[in-house]
Amino acid sequence: MKSKMKIRDLNLWYGDFQGLKNINMDIYENQIIAFIGPSGSGKSTYIKTLNRMNDLVEDARVEGTIKLDGEDIYSSKTDVNVLRKRVGMVFQHPNPFRKSIYDNIAYGPRTHGITDKNKLDEIVENSLKSAAIWDEVKDYLNRSALSISGGQQQRICIARALAVEPEVLLMDEPTSALDPISTSKIEELVTSLKEEYTIAMVTHNMQQASRVSDRTAFFLSGELIETDDTIKIFTNPAKEDTENYISGRFG
């Protein structure tokens, strides 16, 4: 397995509060890793360090290293806009822009200098196909992205993230606000996307983690308790805290 991201001795503070404590992890190429743990365990905080979204949080301070293909993303030489192109993000609640479906998908490529209409058309179509929603929206691309269902909106947001050709896709509880049918569609989509992307996903749903992920990481109180193949985490975890959480004794 080739490591896409290497996280070493990662600590994060919000002011005086330490949110992450000495995290060490490898995220492997073309795999799905799920982050599980109770509320407040540091999962969402951690995933946001992977493309420096925490830069936007006042008083956030990070120590340690996160390397993407060997390059330290917290280096002063790192262009954060380029980093977030390479490491895309899909959030918990669908957040399409107040624009047409077409303009939502074309937004990123235009930001990065693509203006040719034919090229944009191609990107929009390919991105919507990759997000498994092209057939549902192809006849009304000029309709507001806010006019479609929540599940469709989330797939539009995934297509928007894919439009700038990321290498890593971060997903922070992407199905928590969706109904079971939409959740199933997103899970099928995520599983298919790992052929081309490396995916890290926060989920509160342990069944979801067991269904879609190759590896699972368990967080508790800002610490990474253990990481292993998903089947091992769910059938034979090494740590008692993991066993207690998996079995429903807390969380």
From TrEMBL:
Gene3D superfamilies: P-loop containing nucleotide triphosphate hydrolases
PROSITE patterns on file: ABC_TRANSPORTER_1, ABC_TRANSPORTER_2
TM helices/strands, residue ranges: none
Gene Ontology terms describing biological process: phosphate ion transmembrane transport
GO MF term list: ATP binding; ATP hydrolysis activity; phosphate transmembrane transporter activity
Residues annotated as domain ABC transporter: 5-246
UniProt xrefs under SMART domains: AAA
Keywords: ATP-binding, Nucleotide-binding, Phosphate transport, Transport
GO cellular component: membrane
Superkingdom assignment: Bacteria
Matching NCBIfam families: 3a0107s01c2
Annotated protein name in UniProt: Phosphate ABC transporter ATP-binding protein, PhoT family
InterPro entries linked to this entry: AAA+_ATPase, ABC_transporter-like_ATP-bd, ABC_transporter-like_CS, P-loop_NTPase, PstB-like
Keyword Nucleotide-binding part of the UniProt annotation: yes
